[in-house]
Amino acid sequence: MSTDIEQRTLLDVKDLEVHFPIRSGVVVERTVGHVRAVDGVSLTIDAGRTYGLVGESGCGKTTLGRAVLRLEEPTAGSVWLDSTDVTALRSERLRRFRSKMQMVFQDPLGSLNPRHNVEMLLAEPLKVHGVGSKAERRRLATETLDAVGLPVSVMERYPHEFSGGQRQRLGIARALMLRPDLIVCDEPVSALDVSIQAQVMNLLDELQGEFGLTYLVIAHDLAVVRHLSDRVGVMYLGKLVEEADSEAIYERPRHPYTKALLSAVPQPDPDIEAGRERIILKGDLPSPANPPSGCRFRTRCPWAQDVCAEEAPVWREAADGHKVACHFDF
Q1: What's residue 189's pLDDT?
Q2: How many CB atoms lie within 10 A of CB 56?
Q3: pTM for this one?
Q4: How far apart are CA 31 and CA 289, in angstroms?
Q5: Does domain 9-113+180-325 have CATH number 3.40.630.30?
């Protein structure tokens, strides 16, 4: 987590929606509904900071990250990166602007071209954006490999020749090649062994300090998010339900869903583990094509009341900088 960079808003997401049409019919397809993967999310990230986005699988985290980079087309809302509306960019302007924002994917092997060696993988984004000569691109590749802790001797090797941790370092190196302002990290360590996860998290932290990077980290592992993030947003069924500074959200969660997520994290102290409350959520995550009325979490909430079915909770500030969407104060 970076703390010494001047605070200014780099990423400003406003009322972002991503709805996927549900089609029916064999001869003539017609739209019979929509999957509301992201349904009105707003968040900001200051330059040089890390925003952690957590939630269950299927809550819309990855879709949100991809929509920020225009890898998925938003249905509504806007994404502002350094005073530029990314959602308004088209064709060539969008292609040029992509150098400012990159992504580290969950599956490092699946995101690296198996036919390209390391030098080709790292040089490709520079060639696409017309950066430097062949010699300059090789120099940048060498510098970037050094930054992620890989020797220049790997230049001629192919992705299948590396371990999972090394491949993720390559994925990070490729994202760094254009020296972007924003990097979206989609489950950056979930595919790695526990012994390697800490190394990659520490690497991300070091690179942020060295290059002044801004991260949007998407993860389901709350320990990962706590280690990396300055601010945390908790997402449920396409919406943010809580947002606060990292320590505040772990010390005093204010939404029942956040409480349930944190109660599932094992504690190393056996006395604390034995005495703490476990919140077991009932049922499965509802379909984003047909979300519950009122509060979307009410069908699984241990404290749900009649008002939760009748009215959607207002996104409000429960404490200084601590926002929550719940009818009650916990």
Answers
A1: 86
A2: 16
A3: 0.92
A4: 12
A5: no
